Amino acid sequence: MSSELQLIEAAKKGSVAAFTDLVSAHRERLLRFLLTRCSSYADAEDAVQDTLMSAYRYIHSYNSRWRFSTWLYRIALRNAAKIGSSATVDLQELRGDENDPLSECIAASDRENLWLSARRLLTDEVYAAMWLRYVDDMSVNDISAVLERSASWTKVNLLRGRRALGTELNRGSCANKSDDHTGEAYG
Fold this sequence. Notes:
single chain, Rna Polymerase Sigma Factor, Chain: A, Arc Repressor Mutant, subunit A, 0% strand
C-alpha cells in the first residue's frame, strides 16, 4: 500500500491510477460536505466531479505542507460557489397550516436535527467551519487553510457557532418541556 505522499508524487508524474487511489478515500466525505452546501444532490455530484477534475488538472500545484484533504476542500468550496450552491431548500415553503401534520413533523425534525439548525442559524463560513471540525474532524489549522481564514478567526467562530446552537437547542428543549408539562417551571 502506498502512502498518500507517494500517491501524490506518482499523480504529479501523470499516474491516473495513483490519482484515483488518492481521491477514492476522500470522495464520499467530500460529497457529504458538498451536500450541505448545494441545493440538490445533482449539484453536489457536479461539484465533486468538478473538484476532482480540477484537482487532477492542478495536482502539480499541490503543496505538501498542507494535508491533501485540505487542498481538496478548498477546491470544493470554490466549485460549490461557482454552481451557486449556497441556496438550500426553504422548509418554510413546505409548511402550511400551523396544525397541519406535515408542519408539526417538519418542526419536530428541525428541533431534533442539529445540522438543519446550524444551517439556518449560522453564516455559510461558520457552518462550513463547524462541519469540517465536527463531521470531517479537521484541525483548526486545516479548517483555516480551507476557508482561507486565520486560526484565531476559526477558533472564535467555532466557539460562537457552538454557543448559538446551544442557545437554540436549549430554547427549543425548554419550549418543548413547557408544552409537555404546562404549569411546571423550567430554568
